[in-house]
Amino acid sequence: MIKEIYKKYEEILNKSSDFFLLAIRLYWGWLFFRAGFWKFTHYPQATKFFDYLGLPYPEYFVIFIATVETVGGILLFFGIFSRITALILTFNMIGAFIVGHKDALLSIFSKPEDFYMAQPLTFLIASLIVLFFGAGKFSIDYLILNKYFKN
């Protein structure tokens, strides 16, 4: 009896995973887009912040990161090249931790609350979810793969 209940529970979760991946992609794709677009629309403030962080050529770094986040957010939202996009966004968030939230990163074990409260963490987790689990059935990736590469 317990085995059958667990099997049914597992079945429900497996069928729900595509909705979960869709929710992750839509929400975090939108947030990545907004973060990147903000850097474009607030270029002087973003450049000043990147300069404060000690990044070389902050005016170019802002354009690069804004492009990665804006385009990456759109691609993630629609589920286009999702795993490649998620890999790039993962590196972007690791870079954000290293450059902008180094203290939080270094306190991962000594003061974990600083680490899990750091802004890049949730973006990083969302990127990792899509990187490892893909975009799900409700994505352009899925449509393309099934239409052109179906066995």
TrEMBL record:
Domain of life (superkingdom): Bacteria
A Pfam family the protein falls into: DoxX
Cell location: Cell membrane
Residues annotated as transmembrane: 20-40, 60-81, 88-109, 121-145
Cross-referenced InterPro entries: DoxX, DoxX-like_oxidoreductase
Family (UniProt): Belongs to the DoxX family.
Descriptive protein name: Putative oxidoreductase
Source organism phylogeny: Bacteria, Pseudomonadati, Aquificota, Aquificia, Aquificales
